[in-house]
Amino acid sequence: MALALRLWRSLPLGRSAAPGLRFPTVAAGSREQCVLWRLRGAEVMGNPGTFKRSLLFSALSYLGFETYQVISQAAVVHAAAKVFRVEEILEQADYLYGSGETEKLYQLLSQYKESEDAELLWRLARASRDIAQLSGTSEEEKKLLVYEALEYAKRALEKNESSFAAHKWYAICISDVGDYEGIRAKIANAYKIKEHFEKAIELNPKDATAIHLMGIWCYTFAEMPWYQRRIAEMLFATPPSSTYEEALGYFHRAEQVDPNFYSKNLLLLGKTYLKLHNKKLAAFWLTKAKDYAAHTEEDKQIQTEAAQLLTGFSDKN
């Protein structure tokens, strides 16, 4: 309404509408370079119709500018509200993840699967994978969720290649998909997986999880069975390989960055020391894994495995 009122007041209302307006005159020269407009008090000289059309055009231009400003301001407000909304969702998601509310987290984030936000997408990839890991998830559902997680992680990486978390979860999801595509695919993807873990660590050297995952990569290739090594040799001139010492280095580094951050890191420290025939340190880390406060189903599974390995120690002694 205020905009229409300003437009109405700017339009010429007969001859009395022009007082105060001043127009530049054209410099003298030939007859064609005559003065187009002159104002004498309230009297408009020249062609009144042309003047009115010109003034109307100016008013409409002003209206267009005003409309543009209103739309622009509305767009800014909408964008700000959208950013606030995303931040609110991320805050809720992180709370649910920290509380071990796997199913609620997946339900929350699934509402935004069409999002273009990398932070939402990698969290959705993680949530999909976590649901797949639950014991109550059927094999058919698990497979669907694993591929779904890979798609979300891939989109997150496309949206933001500087996101260490997107690199990390993309690598994790590629590895998971390998379980359904055979040994050849799993080994063929090994270098890609390592590349993205290394990039995640480069982008955030304080992310204990990415460091831990590099340890798992090393541990996996250190204990690779002979027949898988043969396949790797057929696929690559220099197949991926590693040692238990390298794996141990990453597991310890992860623990230094964030002590006691993950039950599986404690378990793998114990298992790696077992591989290196150091039973004393193996027992130390396995005990820590067994006594770890369980927040998730995975934590409970790790507690059970650690306890079984420790019982194996006792039986042999």
UniProtKB/TrEMBL annotation:
One of its GO terms (molecular function) is microtubule binding. Gene3D superfamilies: Tetratricopeptide repeat domain (1.25.40.10). Its main location: cytoplasm. It is found in: Cytoplasm, Cytoskeleton, Spindle pole. It comes from Delphinapterus leucas (Beluga whale). The keyword Nucleotide-binding does not apply. Interacts with microtubules. Keywords: Cytoplasm, Cytoskeleton, Microtubule, Repeat, TPR repeat. This is Regulator of microtubule dynamics protein 1. Belongs to the RMDN family. GO terms for cellular component: mitochondrion; mitotic spindle pole; spindle microtubule. It holds the Pfam family RMD1-3.
